[in-house]
Design brief:
- The structure holds 2 protein chains of 2 kinds.
- Chain A is α+β, with helices and mostly antiparallel strands.
- Chain A contains 27 helices and 26 strands.
- In chain A, about 55% of the residues lie in helices and about 20% in strands.
- Chain A is elongated.
- Chain B is an all-alpha fold.
- Helices cover about 55% and strands about 0% of the residues of chain B.
- The termini of chain B are far apart.
- Classes of the chains: A alpha+beta, B mainly alpha.
- At the A-B interface, helix 2, helix 3, strand 2, helix 6 and helix 7 of A face helix 1 and helix 2 of B.
Chain lengths: ~725, ~60
């Protein structure tokens, strides 16, 4: 829209408010240099949310334009050059909505979903043509004769020929590719049926014959395209959501240069660069610590919950999270060479093994495609020998092809998977892989990872009551001076218990060790055992030392993820075997297993052990569902028959798994297994329905009793039955 | 039966109008945010900054 259009449009609106004029003004100035910021808004759901977010953002001076897309739960913001995207996220959060920054570069890949739009156009043309042709055919079926029938047939031909040439192209193209490669797929009988029906119909029409299959050829194209479109849509929804998850990790890093730090793309880093990693940030590359001391959270890589102390000279791997002090690391491996990527590559290799799984639809097609050809060829030869009339024989061969054409079969699987993945998506599960539902339905054993999967990965204080009140007050004061996860957990628990902080002055954080301050003239310290000369503890602990008194430990345990207990119970109740495998210490794993009632657990498992255990289970005939989030799970996720990972998992783990859990709760899991089982039953039912239609109609066609009316009825009825049956999954 | 010579072209013409209208809606991105559009129409604030092309859709 040009600027002038916009102004005239606005002048025509009497109700324009001041705000809208301001917005237009801003819009007019919007140019290409603006910062385009994409924000994911998972919690918006109503008209009021749209208004609040848009008006709230437009009220900011640096925002030129903001538009919310409720379907994608996403906002596109145009702001002044140089605006920090993180500020926009903070602004949206201040408006009361959860917000995450999306990386526009990662998302720009899903260009317009061109293939989907293309299919939709073809579907529209096929729908238009088949409706018109059906109307004409109804006249013919109800007894039009002579010149009127010929006229109707010719009009039908004029509509159908160009419509098929446009709409059925995907089938022709696929069939041609398959034939050139020397094998048969579903598209070969489809293309053959459409073409043969058109040729015989044209021939019949030119001879003023009674039967023309224009309507059938068109309806066939329409129904099959519907199946294709549904199939495509399910996949593209999954794909774009998966890409959105990937875009959540904005790959930026702070490179230390001669004239200060600069923010650069991770992909531009090279070996030997110095990179500053702020507390709370993830290591962008593998490297070695050059400056600073801190603690690292390695739980995503190894499953350990206890943070690890690091100092200059220690190696770090990409993906570890820096907790307390700023670090400068010297990159030793970047991009594809980092340990993170090497893991991802391993997964890619293992992945090719899984694609060996043949889906139900493929199995059906393998039986079906040759059968159809043989049947119609037999009908053709039989009638040619019997009657000696090429025209009759060709007519019957076309009727057989049209009747047997896998119209219902083409819809049977996509309709069910669309309905099922829609249902699961509403429950917070994203199906990434086309055959994931089928594999999930066969699962009989569930293997869970501990850290980050069954537990939320955030610590909670366990011995608050055992602490003397004045110690708690000092600890609270010290804890509030630090952003370390243990400090935050301590502060939260103490505040909840109504503790007021003691007057501690000169609070300083000693990166990698803890916080220190002065209370009533005595030095007080809260931090690692070694730093305050505390004892050893099997549990995660922070130690408090007041002056020269003996240090006291604050003990922490990992909080259970929401719905973990219910999920494990529900899975066991539905007869599945539940296992727990973790890289954490056996005490931590054992106590969790006991809480959840899991008898079979393994601790201190290395990534390779996990994968090996799953292979062993497979060898015993079990079909394993792996639920995990860490990098140490990726090999296991790939080795398993089906796999699920939470959205909080590392990118590599999400890539490796078939299904992603979008919410923070595990509760949808049993529902997913149930839905998968139900959809498989529907698919089987659909195959049965389609087969029965064929069993009834094929003998009629072979006997030469099948009129275009019967063909149209059989085809539409079976397609509609199958679609309705699929809808029952919703 | 002469009436057919009017009726058939008319019905085909109407069908084509519908088809063209549909193609137009697809091409002008009217299915980008069906849920949002359904709710926006109920909002009484004037929508003075209509959707641009989604930058991710180009």
């Amino acid at each position: 829209m040009s600027t002038t259009d916009f102004e005239t449009g606005a002048a025509a609106c009497p109700g324009c408010s001041m705000a809208s004029v301001a917005a237009q003004h801003a819009r007019r100035q919007a140019d290409d240099q603006d910062e385009t910021i994409l924000v994911s808004l998972p919690t918006i759901h109503c008209a009021a949310c749209i208004n609040t977010v848009e008006q709230g953002l437009l009220a900011l001076p640096h925002v030129k334009d903001a538009r919310v897309n409720l379907t994608r739960k996403r906002a596109t913001v145009h702001a002044d050059p140089g605006t920090d995207p993180a500020d926009i996220v903070t602004d949206v959060e201040r408006l009361g909505y959860e917000a995450h920054l999306l990386d526009a570069a990662t998302l720009s890949g899903d260009a317009a979903d061109r293939a989907g739009r293309d299919l939709l156009m073809r579907l529209a043309v096929a729908g238009f043509a088949s409706m018109n042709v059906m109307l004409l055919s109804v006249a013919v079926w109800s007894g039009a004769e002579g010149a009127t029938r010929d006229l109707f047939h010719w009009i039908s031909a004029a509509i159908v020929m160009p419509a098929v040439a446009f709409s059925a192209q995907p089938f022709f193209r696929n069939a041609w590719t398959a034939l050139r490669a020397g094998h048969l797929n579903m598209d070969v009988p489809i293309s053959l049926a459409i073409l043969l029906a058109l040729v015989t119909s044209l021939w019949e029409t030119s001879l003023s014959g009674e039967h023309a299959y224009f309507d059938a050829a068109m309806a066939l194209t329409f129904f099959l395209l519907t199946g294709r479109y549904l199939d495509h849509r399910t996949r593209s929804v999954a794909r774009s959501a998966a890409r959105e998850l990937a875009a959540l990790e904005v790959p930026k890093a702070w490179r230390v240069g001669s004239d200060g730090d600069e923010k650069v793309d991770v992909s531009t880093l090279s070996v030997g660069d110095h990179v500053r990693v702020h507390p709370g940030a993830r290591m962008p590359v593998d490297g070695e610590i050059a400056e600073g001391t801190s603690e690292l959270d390695r739980s995503l890589l190894t499953g350990e919950t206890v943070p690890v102390y690091v100092e200059p000279g220690r190696p770090v791997s990409a993906g570890e999270v820096n907790l307390t002090g700023p670090l400068v690391i010297r990159a030793t491996a970047v991009g594809r060479d980092t340990s993170l990527h090497r893991m991802a590559d391993l997964v890619a290799i293992a992945e090719s093994g899984r694609s060996r799984y043949t889906s139900l639809a493929d199995k059906a097609a393998k039986l079906y495609a040759p059968g159809v050809h043989i049947l119609s060829a037999l009908a053709f030869v039989g009638w040619l020998l019997y009657s000696g009339d090429l025209r009759v024989a060709l007519n019957i061969a076309a009727a057989v092809l049209i009747i047997t054409c896998p119209c219902a079969l083409g819809l049977a699987v996509p309709a069910v998977t669309t309905a099922a993945s829609g249902r699961l998506f509403r429950h917070g599960l994203l199906i990434k892989n086309a055959t994931a539902l089928e594999r999930l339905a066969q699962v009989d054993t569930v293997v869970f990872d501990k850290t980050g999967t069954l537990t939320a990965g955030t610590p909670v204080l366990t011995n608050l009551d055992a602490m003397p009140p004045h110690d708690l007050q000092i600890a609270l004061a010290l804890a509030e001076g630090s952003a370390h996860p243990l400090s935050k957990a301590l502060a939260l628990a103490a505040r909840d218990a109504g503790v007021t902080p003691a007057e501690v002055i000169d609070i300083t954080e000693v990166p990698g060790h803890g916080t220190e301050g002065t209370w009533q003239g005595r030095t007080v310290r809260l931090g690692r055992a070694a730093w305050v000369e505390g004892g050893a503890s099997a549990q995660t602990a922070a130690w408090l030392r007041v002056g020269d008194d003996a240090p006291r430990p604050f003990l922490f345990s990992d909080r259970l993820r929401d719905g973990a207990a219910e999920t494990v119970a529900a899975l066991k109740q539905s007869g599945l075997r539940v296992l727990l495998m973790s890289g954490d210490s056996s005490q931590a794993v054992g106590s969790l297993a006991e809480t959840l009632g899991i008898d079979d657990w393994t601790a201190e498992a290395l990534p390779a052990d996990k994968a090996a255990r799953i292979e062993a289970l497979h060898a015993d005939g079990a079909k394993v569902l792996m639920v995990g989030d860490g990098l140490n799970d990726t090999a296991a996720l790939t080795a398993a028959h089906a796999s699920i990972s939470p959205a909080s998992a590392l990118d590599a783990a999400r890539v490796a798994s078939d299904i992603v859990l979008l919410g923070s709760t595990l509760a949808p899991l049993p529902e997913a297994v149930r839905t998968a089982g139900r959809s498989m039953r529907r698919i089987r039912e659909n195959f049965t329905v389609a087969t029965w239609y064929n069993i009834i109609a094929v003998p009629l066609a072979v006997a030469g009793l099948c009129s275009p009316l019967i063909a149209a009825l059989a085809m539409s009825a079976s397609s509609i039955t199958v679609s309705l049956n699929a809808l029952r999954v919703r | 039966m002469e009436v057919l010579s009017f009726l058939i072209p008319i019905s085909l013409f109407l069908g084509v109008v519908g088809l063209v209208a549909f193609v137009w809606t697809v091409r002008s991105n009217q299915y980008d945010d069906p849920e949002g559009d359904a709710r926006r129409i109920l909002s009484d604030t004037y929508d003075d900054h209509p959707a641009e092309d989604d930058p991710t859709d180009r």
